[in-house]
Structures are given as structure tokens and as C-alpha cells.
């Protein structure tokens, strides 16, 4: 069995003061992927930087206070790679992956974007570079008899079922036609070749959402977005026995504006 959890922590220092550490202590996952860490490792307390029982691979952004990803594993990884071979993004705190027995697991924080700004142009450049890498990752894994799993905040809601207010967001970053088409390519067996394991487990429902704005009563009304995805190669996806969002019981119990997304894979 392999259990993997992924969560955008929305600033790890803030999350640590709100409930991240108790969640991690009770977490039964073999791998935890973090996004939007924002902090440099030396800015974190020992309990957060080196939690007992975990091997942590940090990939902070060169620009302090931005982005940052990490992978926590119960066993020491066989190899670690930061970035995906594109100089613009290699020190941007957007991607880190580890090799474990039989599987490569990556933590991804895809740029959020904003229509009509440089941020959207950055997002588009990232997507253009990352899809070829995903194909390479899938092919490399297949050649070595491995599987691959890319977890994280993809910052794109793929279909109308993936956000509550889809009609009002058709011209907003995160639900633009070209972004959704790109994600369709990632999930096309003849192209990217990855599988959205949560959607495969929940094919006929709205959500389950993983991000809710702190504005208004979005969380209480479950007016959310499903933008945190666990994308697996087909062989691993076929072994998925459960995939779910760990939605907090109440607004007050949230320690991030995202919820952890978890999948369990059989042997």
C-alpha cells in the first residue's frame, strides 16, 4: 500500500501556528507533498523543518516569501530532483520530485496567473514547458518499470464540475478555455498520459473541492474550486483504491485556504 497526501499550506509558518503540525502528526501517509511553503528552511522551527519520522526535501523559491515546495517521505528517497530542467523555473520553488521504490513522486505549484498581466504570461510559459516534461517523466518511468505521481496545486479547474461558480469564472485565470485545454492534454492517454485519480474515484459529482476563498462564506457554502490534483501514470492510477479531500469540519478548524488531498494505492 502507498498513501500520499498533498496540500497547499498557504505559508508554512502561518499554517504551523494554526494546526499543520497536529495534522502531520496524525497523518498516516507515506508521502506528503507541500506547496506554497513561502519560507526558507532556516526560517522554520526545528519541529517544522525536520519533523520526527520524516525525510524532508525542500525546494524554496529564490525570491523570498514566494512559492516553495517540499516532499516529506517516511523512508529516505533514492534520488531527488529540483525543477524540471527549465532555467526560468528551476529555482522558482515550483517543482521537486523524489524517487522511491517503484514510484517517482513530484510536488507541483503551478503559477496562479491573472488575466492581462505578466503573471498570466509566466503561467503560460510554465505550462508550455511542463507538459513536455510530464511526457518525459511518464516515458522515463515506463522504461525503468516505475510509475509516477505528480501532486499539487495545479491552479486550473478542469471541468465545470470542478468549481461551484463556473459561469462567473469563464474569463478568469484558473478556468480559461486554453488552460482547461492544456490540462485535458495532460490527462489525454495519447498525450500527457496522466490520470486525475480523484476524478476517477468520484466521476459523477461536483467537486470534491479543495480550495475556498477566505472571502465571505465560501467555505460554509462549499463554494470552492478543485485545483489540487494527484495525477498518476495509468499503472499507478489503476491501483488507486481511495482518493478524497480532507475538508475541515468547520471554518474555524482550517489551517490553510486549501484542504489536503489524499490517495491510497494498493500493491
TrEMBL record:
<dbReference type="InterPro" id="IPR005135">
    <property type="entry name" value="Endo/exonuclease/phosphatase"/>
</dbReference>
<feature type="binding site">
    <location>
        <position position="257"/>
    </location>
    <ligand>
        <name>Mg(2+)</name>
    </ligand>
</feature>
<feature type="binding site">
    <location>
        <position position="36"/>
    </location>
    <ligand>
        <name>Mg(2+)</name>
    </ligand>
</feature>
<comment type="similarity">
    <text>Belongs to the DNA repair enzymes AP/ExoA family.</text>
</comment>
<dbReference type="GO" id="GO:0006281">
    <property type="term" value="P:DNA repair"/>
</dbReference>
<feature type="domain" description="Endonuclease/exonuclease/phosphatase">
    <location>
        <begin position="5"/>
        <end position="258"/>
    </location>
</feature>
<feature type="site" description="Important for catalytic activity">
    <location>
        <position position="228"/>
    </location>
</feature>
<keyword id="KW-0479">Metal-binding</keyword>
<feature type="active site">
    <location>
        <position position="109"/>
    </location>
</feature>
<dbReference type="InterPro" id="IPR037493">
    <property type="entry name" value="ExoIII-like"/>
</dbReference>
<dbReference type="GO" id="GO:0008311">
    <property type="term" value="F:double-stranded DNA 3'-5' DNA exonuclease activity"/>
</dbReference>
<feature type="binding site">
    <location>
        <position position="258"/>
    </location>
    <ligand>
        <name>Mg(2+)</name>
    </ligand>
</feature>
<dbReference type="Pfam" id="PF03372">
    <property type="entry name" value="Exo_endo_phos"/>
</dbReference>
<keyword id="KW-0464">Manganese</keyword>
<feature type="binding site">
    <location>
        <position position="153"/>
    </location>
    <ligand>
        <name>Mg(2+)</name>
    </ligand>
</feature>
<feature type="site" description="Interaction with DNA substrate">
    <location>
        <position position="258"/>
    </location>
</feature>
<dbReference type="GO" id="GO:0046872">
    <property type="term" value="F:metal ion binding"/>
</dbReference>
<feature type="active site" description="Proton donor/acceptor">
    <location>
        <position position="153"/>
    </location>
</feature>
<keyword id="KW-0378">Hydrolase</keyword>
<feature type="binding site">
    <location>
        <position position="8"/>
    </location>
    <ligand>
        <name>Mg(2+)</name>
    </ligand>
</feature>
<dbReference type="InterPro" id="IPR036691">
    <property type="entry name" value="Endo/exonu/phosph_ase_sf"/>
</dbReference>
<protein>
    <submittedName>
        <fullName>Exodeoxyribonuclease III</fullName>
        <ecNumber>3.1.11.2</ecNumber>
    </submittedName>
</protein>
<feature type="binding site">
    <location>
        <position position="155"/>
    </location>
    <ligand>
        <name>Mg(2+)</name>
    </ligand>
</feature>
<feature type="active site" description="Proton acceptor">
    <location>
        <position position="258"/>
    </location>
</feature>
<dbReference type="InterPro" id="IPR004808">
    <property type="entry name" value="AP_endonuc_1"/>
</dbReference>
<keyword id="KW-0460">Magnesium</keyword>
<feature type="site" description="Transition state stabilizer">
    <location>
        <position position="155"/>
    </location>
</feature>
Amino acid at each position: 500500500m502507498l498513501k500520499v497526501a498533498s496540500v497547499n499550506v498557504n505559508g508554512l509558518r502561518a499554517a504551523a501556528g494554526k494546526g499543520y503540525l497536529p495534522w502531520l502528526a496524525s497523518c498516516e501517509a507515506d508521502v506528503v507533498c507541500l506547496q506554497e511553503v513561502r519560507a526558507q528552511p532556516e526560517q522554520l522551527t526545528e519541529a517544522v523543518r525536520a519533523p520526527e519520522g520524516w525525510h524532508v526535501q525542500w525546494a524554496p523559491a529564490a525570491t523570498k516569501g514566494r512559492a516553495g515546495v517540499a516532499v516529506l517521505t517516511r523512508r529516505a528517497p533514492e534520488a531527488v530532483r529540483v525543477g524540471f530542467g527549465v532555467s526560468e523555473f528551476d529555482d522558482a520553488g515550483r517543482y521537486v520530485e523524489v524517487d522511491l521504490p517503484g514510484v517517482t513522486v513530484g510536488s507541483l505549484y503551478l503559477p496562479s496567473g491573472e488575466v492581462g498581466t505578466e503573471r498570466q504570461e509566466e503561467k503560460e510559459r510554465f505550462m508550455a514547458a511542463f507538459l513536455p516534461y510530464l511526457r518525459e517523466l511518464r516515458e522515463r518511468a515506463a522504461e525503468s518499470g516505475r510509475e509516477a505521481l505528480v501532486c499539487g496545486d495545479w491552479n486550473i479547474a478542469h471541468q465545470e464540475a470542478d468549481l461551484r461558480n463556473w459561469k462567473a469564472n469563464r474569463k478568469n485565470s484558473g478556468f480559461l478555455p486554453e488552460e482547461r485545454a492544456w490540462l485535458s492534454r495532460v490527462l489525454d492517454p495519447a498525450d500527457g498520459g496522466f490520470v486525475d485519480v480523484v476524478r476517477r474515484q468520484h466521476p459523477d459529482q461536483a467537486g470534491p473541492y479543495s480550495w475556498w476563498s477566505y472571502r465571505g462564506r465560501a467555505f460554509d457554502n462549499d463554494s470552492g474550486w478543485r485545483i489540487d490534483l494527484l495525477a498518476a501514470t495509468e499503472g499507478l492510477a489503476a491501483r488507486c483504491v481511495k482518493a478524497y479531500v480532507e475538508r475541515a469540519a468547520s471554518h474555524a478548524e482550517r489551517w490553510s485556504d486549501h484542504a489536503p488531498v489524499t490517495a491510497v494505492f494498493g500493491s
